[in-house]
Amino acid sequence: MSLNETYGTIKDVLNKARSSVYKTVNSILVQTYWEIGKIIVEEEQIGQKRAGYGKYLIEELSQRLIKEYGKGFEERSLRRIRQFYILFSKRSALRPELTWTHYRLLLTVENKNARSFYMIETANNHWSTRELERQINSMLYERLALSRDKRKVLELSKKGQLIEKPSDMIKDPYIFEFIGLEQRDYYSENDLESRLINNLKRFLLELGKGFHVSEIAYDNTFVFKLGDQSKQFLSMLKNCELQALVRSS
Q1: Residue 232 near residue 221, CB atoms below 8 Å
Q2: 10 and 84: one domain?
Q3: In 3-state terms, the chain is what percent helix, strand and coil (to 5)?
Q4: Exposed, middle or buried: residue 167 (CB in 10 Å: 0-12, 13-18, 19+)?
């Protein structure tokens, strides 16, 4: 084994260890905040007959915790931790793949079914916090729910996005705000093409599940096929879940 190979092997071990430590710390942090939220809610219930007790409890706890553990326990933070327990009261339902930052984003989703959907999709697709925030802001759940009946919408909240037929892969509408084009009624094909290629990873995430780049043709074009219809897009893609290649023209 050469020196470079030895260094590379050690580097892989260290990176795996760092990743493992990061995941462990985040998991412990989520569990800790859940426990704190549970204690606060249960104490509020005991003293609920006393007017203003909930507000007093948060204020007093915040002052004492800040003195001993720092600014991470300001009143706003404790209220968020309290809300976390209320919205995710089943400890067994917490997903270890999600960090505390993921859960903070989920707390902003008011619709219970949408919140459950985003939690499942984040875990299943390994979304970063930035990608989760983008999907929430682009109303992914609402876009998918529009084309489904009530039973299918309920399945979204329990199982995430299920692919039962090719049309389930397609979102309507697509949201490409990340390419940075100013809002206008139409764009030139060249502008759209160059911006999408420069943001290829986000473009694939917006297309839906299973897409990845198979090959980029010299003219940067491909034909996307769905059933008996086809449209010209950029590059050449393969959808792993459909086991279908999007072939160039």
Answers
A1: yes
A2: yes
A3: 60, 10, 30
A4: exposed
Residue 1 lies in a domain: yes
Q: What is the DSSP letter of 243?
A: T
CA–CA separation, 86 and 100 (whole Å)? 15
Token digits of residue 139: 């109303």
> What does the block give as tokens for 212?
């990845």
Domain that holds residue 81: 1-89
Nearest in space to 240 (alpha carbons), one of 173, 174, 179, 169: 169
Looking at the whole model, is its pTM more than 0.70? no
Q: pLDDT digits over 134-192, tens only?
A: 889 888 888 777 755 556 655 665 666 655 555 555 554 455 555 555 555 455 556 66
User: For residues 34 and 91, is the Cβ–Cβ distance under 8 A?
Assistant: yes
Q: Is residue 67 part of a domain?
A: yes
What secondary structure does DSSP assign to 177-213, as a single string? GGG-PPP-S---HHHHHHHHHHTHHHHHHHH-TTEEE
Q: Among 162, 179, 204, which residue terminates a domain?
A: 162
Say if residue 102 is in the same domain as residue 71. no
Number of domains into which the chain is organized? 2
Q: How far apart are CA 41 and CA 85, in angstroms?
A: 8
- 25-34 as b/e, with b when 16 or more CB fall inside 10 Å? ebbeebeebb
Mean pLDDT of the residues in the chain? 75
